[in-house]
Fold these 3 entries.
Entry 1:
Amino acid sequence: MPLRETLARVDADLAAGRIPVARQRLRGLVSSFPYDLTLRRRLAEVYRLYGDAAEAGRWMYLEEDRNAGETASFEARYGSPGWRMKALAWRGPEAMAATAFAEGQLAAVRTACAEELGHPVDWDDPDSYRDDLEEEYEAPFEPWTVGGVLAGVGCLVGALAFLAIWVSGVVALFD
């Protein structure tokens, strides 16, 4: 599906309260277009709807106007440079970054990982930094947030509305 069409679906999903669907579409787009900082920014906005500062920080990490608190949450959740490399989901050389700031951030994470492991690492070769991923990542428990609860309620309301429409359509078939 073309980028523009998928983004239109993201907008429709968000307008209808289908936040998890919008998030999943954006994750797919970031995977397909890792150099597009606009997609990463949109994904951060969706995570803010959940109240997930660490994930918002993850997707804004390459932006100069990022939120310091979100960045700190991201760095705390993904505590080592290897985990940050994995989390940033970058591919290719840092020179492909859209901005000098993003290029510098990527180079800093890669350099820190290489220094920690004692050998060169490469964005395109996860095995090169796998040693830093030996410990299984476990997301820390975080209490419910207002944004997360509202996102869940919105999904529930959307599902109930869909079910009501579907039931009324089935009933209309038998009338």
Note: The helical segments are 3-15, 19-32, 37-50, 53-60, 68-77, 81-88, 100-117, 146-174.
Entry 2:
Amino acid sequence: MPKSTEVLPECTQLMDPGKLRPFLEAFTSRLLNLGHTRLTVSGYEASARHFGQWLQSTKIAITEIDDDVVRRFAQHRCRCPGSRQADRLSAKYVNRARRFIGFLVEYGAVTPSTHELPGVDLHEVQIVAFQTWLRRHRGISERTVRRHGRMVMRLLAGLVLIQSCTMPVSFGR
């Protein structure tokens, strides 16, 4: 069964990302182009929509997003519309929102904070550029482009693991 690129309808009806909508659409497109499954993308989308909804309800402008705003989002007692009403948000859920905020920083919509946001993969831009090159110059199917993107991501993860496991060898005295 092929992966669907549709957004889960219940997610789009419950939370309104407001002014973050065009960024959210670009973010989900990027995740899909990187080869993430529909389920993974819908998880990131739900978290980003929730963050946008919360920004609207607290009347915080996009340009005001910083580490303190993210901390307040993570700690808010959620009574936002939809089925996610809880006293605390999970760390995984908040990290998904942080990754979206990293995307906003990369896009230039948010000023980078002094601390690097966790969960932002610095290689994603290069992988997307590689996939664009594959489409333009190799003429391969979208399925193959996504597969190549996933393969590069796995290779990078393996290389990072190998690099962290190697110990420098010293010779001499």
Note: Residues 1-12, 115-120 have pLDDT under 50 and may be disordered.
Entry 3:
Amino acid sequence: MGLDPDVLDGAPVPVRVTTPAPAPSAGSLAALLVLADGRFPAGGHAHSGGAEAAVKAGRIHDARSLEEFCRGRLHTTGLTAAALAAAAAAGVDPLALDDAADARTPAPALRAAARRLGRQLLRAARATWPSPELDALAAARPRGAHQPVVLGLAARAAGLGPPDAALAAGHETVSGSTTAAVRLLGLDPFDATAVLARLAPELDHVAARAAEAARRALGEGPDALPAASAPLLDLMAEQHAAWPVRLFAS
């Protein structure tokens, strides 16, 4: 069985979503594709988003259980990450957002992974879209800021808006796990891609919620952002970090 989003977030997750997708900023579609491309050198290929531990525990064993797992991630940690990214793209103080990300990431293993990914993404983003804001974040957080915050600031440097940053963050939340499942289970890549396609309406919905939360955060600060949790992911991350041999870093 995959992760149950009702258990993780404490609230029912809509399966049929009618919320329209947030429109990308004018003239920014190409930049959004670059940022969301799995081949962008940001280090995400080395991380499974909890999928490796879930496979070992038997929670992911086929395309259906992979979809359940990804749905749980999307509506919990994915929503939180998308909101942090959208807020950074909107212009909320990235250092305050980094502190907020720390508070929303109780597992030390996940905090460390988020900062490693953030450091690598910051290097790639500064080379791709040079920006004083990215330089300032690198100077303030030499050991790395949380990846969603860096993603949002990179989106801002690329001329993207909060809805774009939210979509990129949400997509990364589920695409990393599906790619990892192909390697871990020998899953048919066609089936894994179909999982992403079926989750697309829910991803649009999560991105719209995240962008709205970012709009509120401009006036109210990071406390206006969601703090959806996934305790089982936290527990599995700590167990995974202690494995002597593993295929993925997290």
Note: The two ends are 20 Å apart (CA to CA).
